[in-house]
Each structure stands twice: as C-alpha cells, then as structure tokens.
Amino acid sequence: MEGRHFVMDEEEPRAKSWPRREDPLAPKGSIGARLRALYAEIEQEPIPADLIDLLEKLDEAERQQSK
After folding, report:
1. For residues 42 and 28, what is the distance between their CA atoms, to the nearest angstrom?
2. What is the 3-state secondary structure (H, E, C) of 19-52?
3. What's the rounded Cα separation, in Å, for the pair 45 and 47?
4. How many independent structural domains does the chain possess?
5. Of 15, 29, 48, 53, which cross-links 24 as Cys (Cβ 3.0–4.6 Å)?
6. Torsions phi, psi of 45, nearest 5?
7. Measured distance CA(57)–CA(51) in Å, rounded
8. pLDDT by residue (tens digit) across 12-63?
9. Which residues constitute the domain of residue 29?
C-alpha cells in the first residue's frame, strides 16, 4: 500500500506500523516524481549527431563482418 509501512514480526505477522504522510521512496513519492520529470525532459532532447554517426559506423562494421 502506498504511504504505509508494514512490519513483519514472527509473533505478530500482520502487525502494521503507523501510516506515513509521504514515503519519498514509494512509486508515487517525491523521488519517483522527480525521476519521471527528469526522464521526460531527457527523452525530449535530440540525439547528438556524433552518436548517430557512431551507430551508423557500427552498423556498417557489423554488415562487413557478416559477409
């Protein structure tokens, strides 16, 4: 469950700890939101021309090697 921590104990395997306001490590917590925003920003950046050239050279080298 989001925002809650569960404590597993041998004596009381279903004992729960208190609910927390926000767990920054939860999938929808503050850290996850920041990582998603950063990924979305990077995803919009163009691929550098040098990287495209390198990938094309690697493709060509693989084609030549497989002949």
Report:
1. 20
2. ECCCCCCCCCCHHHHHHHHHHHHHHCCCCCHHHH
3. 7
4. 1
5. 29
6. -70, 145
7. 10
8. 555 556 556 677 777 778 888 899 999 999 999 999 999 999 999 999 999 9
9. 4-66
